[in-house]
Write a structure and sequence with these properties.
The protein is α/β, with parallel strands linked by helices and about 625 residues long. The protein is built from 21 helices and ten strands. The longest helix is centred in the middle third of the chain and has 54 residues, at about 245-300.
Length: about 625
């Protein structure tokens, strides 16, 4: 499923005003030293690069033709020698020196500008990731992983290209245009007006391009997110694809997403195909007109309405500088192209940063300390967004040492009840308390530090088994890791692996079986040593014999802790202190195993089906 235009993320993206200006305010200003150093070095390098044509023109008029005295802009005449030989030597030294200065300060500019660009993008990327980490599960329920990855990778890279390339080229363009314009006006103001006539036309063409390019770039960036989502989903579900013989179907879906991206990209490029050649044409016409008018002026005198004289040296300076004029003007198309691309990307980056988290630590929240483990659900009601309630008026409590089991059909709301305890979501009505503290009144970190959670969807990071067991307790030593694995009945199979606890599990733990991943996940919770344990079908992927061994370990672990257990196999929770039967988001029965069997209700039916004593 692709991203929807009316999602929360897109709404905040559309509200971002002047995204590139915000980028510089929030991230560029703290790095202003590098930016300033780069700009100073850029000015010196560009001004130095303009000196050779000016010196060459002065040498032609003074040394080679003798038509006028040796003269350079902004330099007093008394600074220059009077003999032809000395003026020639000075010209050669100035030209050589200008190339050296240009090279040195271009290097300094490149280093400073790249430091600025990459430091800014480092901060943007890490801040975006930190923001994403702090968003609650509601955001991830709505957004696809591929689209979020597109923001963190593609959009951040676009901004890096803009800061690294377009910004440098823009600065060079400004300095070159200003310097060339000043020199041309100094050499011959009338011919300079002829040369610069193309600039207003370029401004009009650029304004036309920017107005039409912006929405096209936004559609292109959205298409990238959709394509990344489709690729990520297809790769993550490659096993299902293959077992369902659905390779052709997935290929068609990726092809469709890729073709949409192709169409949106071509929509941008078609506009660029008009703009870029148009800019190059105007710049080329400027050069051709300058050459024609200047050459005619030298051969036949000033063409009307121009007046006065034009020296050969000034003409040569005009030709060289106008050629220099053509290149940066032609690059305006690339700069605008990168600018519009970066503008669309920065809006997406800041759109992500502006999405508010609905589950946050309150400013006056307290640390949850000295936890005994009493858990209380007080008339809890919850629904996902605008959907109807999935949990309705649920109440129960559990004291330290108690085990409360949640049973019922798939989709009844059992997992949601557990996630509310960890504040993956916040209740709509009612309250959940730990040791009498509303979970919304304590810090998120301290709440989750005291709850060990094992999901039915086990997840392992790419790394070693030891690293995955230690996740969340990164300072744990090997002995503690081994002890936790033994408690989860994982030590034996780990020892049989080629590298034992240092075995790489692969992305998402793909090198291990489902049962092995589940036992490592349990070991992770054991190592955390929490006061409250939540097991969401924690043994669903293991065989019966292994389940019995794990269950013994879990019973021992939960002996003096509060445990909330979701179970599909009722045999694993028959010894629970309290069993709640959940259907349609409501608790329809509660009691011990024996009490519920004696009542002959829904639990008794479920037990009978699993025990094989009722007709199926």
């Amino acid at each position: 499923m692709g991203a929807t235009e009316d999602s929360v993320f897109d709404q905040y993206r559309d509200r971002v005003e002047r995204p590139l200006g915000r980028l510089f305010r929030e991230y560029g200003v703290p790095e202003w030293e590098y930016f300033a150093l780069g700009m100073v070095a850029n000015v010196i390098a560009r001004v130095a690069s303009l000196l050779p044509p000016v010196v060459l023109g002065a040498a032609i008029d003074s040394v080679f033709t003798g038509d006028s005295p040796y003269d350079l802009p902004l330099a007093p005449a008394g600074w220059f020698p009077t003999t032809d030989a000395a003026q020639f030597e000075l010209s050669a030294l100035l030209i050589a020196g200008s190339f050296v200065v240009t090279a040195v300060f271009t290097y300094a500019y490149g280093v400073a500008a790249n430091l600025f660009a990459h430091r800014v993008m480092h901060e943007v990327r890490t801040d975006s990731f930190e923001k994403m980490q702090n968003l609650d599960m509601t955001f991830f329920d709505d957004k696809q992983t591929g689209e979020v990855m597109s923001v963190l990778n593609n959009d951040a890279s676009n901004l890096e290209v803009f800061l690294d390339n377009a910004l440098q080229n823009s600065a060079r363009l400004v300095v070159m245009l200003a310097g060339i314009t000043a020199i041309l006006l100094y050499e011959n103001a009338q011919l300079a007006v002829v040369t610069l006539t193309a600039i207003p036309l370029m401004v009009v063409l650029t304004s036309w391009f920017m107005k039409r390019a912006e929405p096209r770039y936004e559609r292109q960036r959205a298409a990238v997110g959709n394509l990344n989502t489709r690729l990520e989903n297809s790769l993550a579900g490659v096993e299902l694809v293959k077992t369902s013989a659905a390779e052709e179907y997935e290929t068609e879906r990726v092809t469709d997403a890729s073709y949409r991206f192709f169409q949106d990209t071509m929509d941008v490029l078609r506009l660029s195909y008009v703009y870029r050649p148009g800019m190059e044409l105007l710049a080329g016409i400027s050069f051709a007109v300058t050459f024609g008018v200047g050459g005619y002026w030298l051969l036949y005198g000033a063409p009307a309405p121009l007046t006065g004289t034009l020296s050969p040296g000034a003409f040569v300076t005009f030709i060289f500088l106008t050629q220099r004029f053509v290149t940066p003007l032609a690059e305006v198309s690339n700069i605008v192209d990168q600018y519009e691309n970066a503008k669309a990307s920065s809006a997406r980056v800041f759109g992500l940063m502006d999405v508010p988290a609905s589950v946050t630590t309150a400013p006056d929240a307290t640390e949850l300390a000295d936890v005994a483990g009493r858990v209380e659900y007080d008339h809890v009601t919850f629904g996902y967004g605008d959907d109807e309630d999935v949990i309705r008026d649920v109440s129960f409590d559990a004291d330290p040492g108690d085990t409360v089991a949640l049973v019922g059909p798939t989709g009844a709301g059992k997992s949601t009840l557990c996630k509310l305890l960890l504040r993956m979501y916040d209740v709509d009505d009612g309250a959940i308390r730990v040791d009498g503290h509303d979970v919304r009144d304590v810090t998120l970190d301290s709440l989750r530090e005291h709850i060990g959670y094992v999901s039915q969807d086990t997840f392992l990071f790419d790394g070693t088994i030891a690293e995955n067991v230690k996740y969340g307790r990164f300072d744990a030593d090997r002995d503690a890791v081994v002890a936790a694995a033994e408690a989860a009945d994982a030590h034996e199979f780990i020892e049989d692996l080629p590298d034992g606890y240092d075995t790489e599990v692969g992305e998402r733990g793909v090198k291990l079986s489902g049962g092995q991943r589940q036992r490592i996940s349990i070991a992770r919770a054991v190592l955390q040593d929490p006061e409250i344990l939540v097991f969401d079908e924690a043994t669903s992927d293991v065989d019966t014999e292994t389940e019995l061994r794990i269950q013994e370990s879990l019973d021992e672990l939960a002996a003096d802790r509060t445990a909330v257990v979701i179970a599909h196999r009722l045999s694993t929770v028959r010894d629970a202190d309290r069993i709640l039967v959940v259907e349609g988001g409501e608790v329809v029965e509660r009691g011990t195993h024996d009490e519920l069997l004696d009542s002959g209700g829904r639990y008794a039916d479920l037990w009978g089906v699993q025990a094989g004593t009722l007709d199926r």
